[in-house]
Design goal:
The complex is a heterodimer. Chain A is mainly alpha-helical. Chain A has one domain. Chain A has nine helices and two strands, in the order ααααααββααα. In chain A, helix 2 crosses helix 3, helix 2 runs antiparallel to helix 4 and helix 4 runs parallel beside helix 7. The longest helix of chain A has 34 residues. Chain A is globular. The radius of gyration of chain B is 25 Å and the shape is elongated. Chain B has two domains: 223 residues, P-loop containing nucleotide triphosphate hydrolases (Rossmann fold, 3-Layer(aba) Sandwich); 89 residues, 2-Layer Sandwich (Alpha-Beta Plaits), CATH 3.30.70. In chain B, 45% of the residues are buried. In chain B, helix 3 crosses helix 4 and helix 4 crosses helix 5. Chain B has eleven helices and 17 strands. The chains are: A mainly alpha, B alpha+beta. At the A-B interface, helix 1 and helix 5 of A face helix 3 and helix 4 of B.
Chain lengths: 287, 344
């Protein structure tokens, strides 16, 4: 046995660690990047802008602007809800596209992919860890919007009991729980898009291309969803239930849309996860 | 030095290794045999298939044909067992520019499922120390020079005990001082018992540190063996320094030697005589000429002292006489072609 170091005495005991260490490292890399923080700050800016705009302008006429906008001045907690509604079509998919599109292609473009694989990270293990990192970002991003919204709303507007869509009134604590539920709903909603981004990321060594393709797909999906001629297709589009979190604002909470959405996103994860696996496991890493 | 691995004979063994990209054969039937404990130079011009071969050895790309054994195990089937025992630098270093050198190494170490997290910091520190980067450990890699990145790449290969080190162009971008350090590092790794597989297009480097070498050209392995074997396949030649090149050439031709007159004095012909003296080269082999009417194919070695005696007897003023071994460079050029027009 060679002894080019004094790290271990005797024959090394080979103990395999599962993905834990690598996942921690992946999250460290993801959340130590300035780019990640820039995106989260941009997302946080959305509720701030909304709150400030409503504060400095006169009362918003009911029924104009994004959903719930007119209720902000009565209850600051609605800043979070409004900001999430505003960021669903573009801003959230944009940031998710950047993170998911970067997963494999970013490492390939940088050349670090070959060193991770030689380490050896294991291709399946690396793919799972990469998806895990993207999934955590998907949880964090809506949460940032919701919490910043609630914070700035509480600072600029009165906070109190919230009247739900069903007409019932709930206390502030319960309202916070509902806010977090909506953030969780959005997180689940974006998991499918993350899986698509992961797959596209295995196809190229150019991260920007994978990011752009992922974002474009999210826009295309929403455009198709808006065409009534394609009615039959709508339930299959990954963006179809993105804004259906109104059920979470009823008393009692209706979980139907949450469940339908979760099943659909699970399907996208299964299909695109399998495609990504099939592609990545046999890929010649030449970057 | 004890031979690691179950098969102490060869650390790397390929049979008919082939890689095809579309219609182009990047690697064409390569049979590598890297003995355990060797410092093995993997030579070849740019684009001759060295890096592709290394990618195949490490399981980064799938071979189109042939078989690979690394450390006695079949690759890529046993990849997960083999690669933790292999340290590699492939096609230049690559790192996360926004992380520090030490953080980059910790990241790569975390990717190895067998690496112990408890000893990670110590091992990273020791690897950085080994390549002389301790002072820059906390600096972002973005601010590293090319030479520092190269060292960090080598440090990455040294994060754990390795039985085999695959170093692709390890001295690329290093200054002469750094090159010397890498050479001594390679020697110390070999002294510790590791097999070192170094690819390079720099012959001098390989001649200085390697015990074995293989030469690639246009995807094919054109020569392989110990350095002595590779040089020995070439032949010795004589070098004569004389102010009487005409007479000398006649004498040498009379002995059946193929004379090459070097009008500019040739390399190493400096000194007081360079103005008037000419340098003649001739291989130490008597080639039967057609006029002499000897049997074809009857090349005979010629003793150098016989050549000197004949020159002196003919009144040639011999100012310098030497027998030279053909250098690896001559051999390399003979096998791979000269200049930029290498075989594609």
């Amino acid at each position: 046995m060679s002894s080019n170091g004094s790290f271990t005495g005797g024959p090394p005991v080979r103990r395999r660690s599962l993905a834990g260490g690598l996942l921690a490292s992946e999250l460290g890399v993801l959340f130590r990047r300035r780019r990640t923080w820039a995106m989260l700050c941009a997302l946080a800016a959305i509720p701030v802008l909304i709150a400030v705009a409503v504060r400095v302008s006169s009362a918003v006429p009911a029924g104009r602007g994004p959903a719930f906008l007119d209720r902000i001045s009565q209850n600051g907690l609605f800043v979070g809800v409004t900001a999430m509604v505003v960021s669903v079509p573009l801003f959230l998919p944009l940031t998710v596209g950047v993170v998911a599109g970067d997963t494999i292609a970013g490492e390939a473009g940088q050349g670090t992919l070959r060193y991770l694989l030689v380490a050896p990270a294991g291709r399946l293990r690396l793919l799972l860890v990469k998806y895990g990192g993207a999934a955590l970002f998907v949880v964090v991003a809506p949460l940032v919007v919701a919490l910043t919204g609630a914070g700035i709303g509480a600072a600029l507007f009165p906070v109190g009991p919230v009247t739900l869509l069903s007409g019932d009134t709930i206390g502030t604590a319960e309202a916070m729980v509902r806010l977090l539920l909506i953030a969780a709903y959005l997180a689940v909603s974006l998991l499918g898009l993350s899986a698509i981004g992961l797959f596209i990321s295995t196809l190229t060594d150019v991260p920007v291309g994978a990011m752009a393709a992922t974002v474009v797909l999210s826009v295309v999906s929403q455009v198709l969803d808006a065409l009534p001629q394609l009615d039959w297709l709508h339930p299959w589009l990954f963006s179809h239930y993105w804004l259906d979190f109104g059920d979470l604002l009823r008393q009692p909470v209706s979980w139907d849309s949450f469940a339908v959405n979760a099943v659909l996103q699970g399907g996208y994860i299964a299909v695109f996860g399998a495609l990504a696996y099939g592609r990545f496991i046999t890929k010649d890493v030449l970057s | 030095m004890s031979g690691p691995g179950p098969r102490a004979g060869l650390s790397i063994e390929t049979k008919g290794l082939t890689k095809r990209f579309g219609h182009q054969l990047a690697v064409d039937g390569v049979d590598l045999a890297v003995p355990t404990g060797a410092v093995f130079g993997f030579l070849g011009p740019n684009g001759s298939g060295k890096t592709t071969t290394i990618r195949l050895l490490l399981g980064l790309a799938a071979a189109s044909g042939g078989s690979i054994r690394v450390l006695g195990e079949e690759m890529p089937r046993k990849l997960k067992d083999v690669l933790p025992r292999v340290g590699a630098l492939v096609e230049g270093p690559a790192f996360y520019p926004f992380l520090s050198g030490a953080a980059n190494l910790r990241r790569m170490d975390a990717a190895d499922p067998y690496a112990s997290a408890a000893t990670r910091r110590a091992r990273v520190q020791s690897a950085l120390e080994r390549v002389g980067l301790t002072h820059a450990a906390d600096k972002k890699v973005r601010a590293y020079s090319l030479g520092m990145k190269q060292r960090l790449g080598i440090a990455n290969a040294l994060l754990a005990q390795r039985e085999l080190l695959v170093l692709d162009e390890p001295t690329n971008g290093l200054d002469p001082q750094g090159t010397r350090e890498v050479r001594s590092l390679v020697r110390s790794l070999a002294a510790d018992g590791a097999t070192v597989f170094v690819s390079s297009h720099l012959l001098a480097e390989v001649e200085q540190i390697c015990t074995h070498a293989a030469i690639m050209s246009a995807g094919r392995l054109v020569a392989q063996g110990t350095l002595a074997e590779l040089r020995g396949a070439g032949q010795a030649r004589i070098r004569v320094l004389t102010p009487d090149p005409g007479t000398a050439a006649q004498v040498l031709a009379g002995l059946g030697l193929a004379v090459i007159l070097s009008p500019d004095g040739g390399p190493g012909a400096g000194g007081a005589h360079s103005g008037t003296d000419a340098v003649l080269f001739a291989p130490l082999l008597s080639v039967p000429s057609s006029t002499a009417n000897r049997n074809a194919g009857a090349e005979k070695p010629v003793e150098p002292e016989a050549v000197v005696a004949a020159l002196v007897a003919a009144g040639v003023r011999v100012r310098g006489f030497a027998t030279e071994q053909v250098s690896l460079e001559d051999r390399f050029v003979a096998l791979t072609g000269e200049g930029f027009d290498v075989v594609q």
